[in-house]
Amino acid sequence: MAQYPAQLDGVFVALADPTRRAVVRRLGHGPTSVGDLAREFPMTLPSFMKHVRTLESNGLIRTVKSGRVRTCVLNRERLALVDDWLAEQRRIWNERTDRLEQFVTDPEENRQ
User: Do 72 and 62 meet the contact criterion of CB atoms below 8 Å apart?
Assistant: First the structure.
């Protein structure tokens, strides 16, 4: 895990919350104003803004303010960080299970 930047830790912390994951999922359909996003969740706007700030501070979303409207945009490049980490974990575990399978199914070869 030490080979991954601290940014990955922040992304996982941000994605650990179901509200923030729902916001990321919603923003996957396109940019949306904070007001429109907040209406989908049963909480006050200040509470919802804490989720927006967490997502923004960890680079998962960007916000742009135009007049009185703040619009959220998903940062897909940051999600690639998680995808890369998961792909590496999948590769490591596939290699381990392949070696275990070979050890179990071909014990003669393993005695050498």
Answer: yes
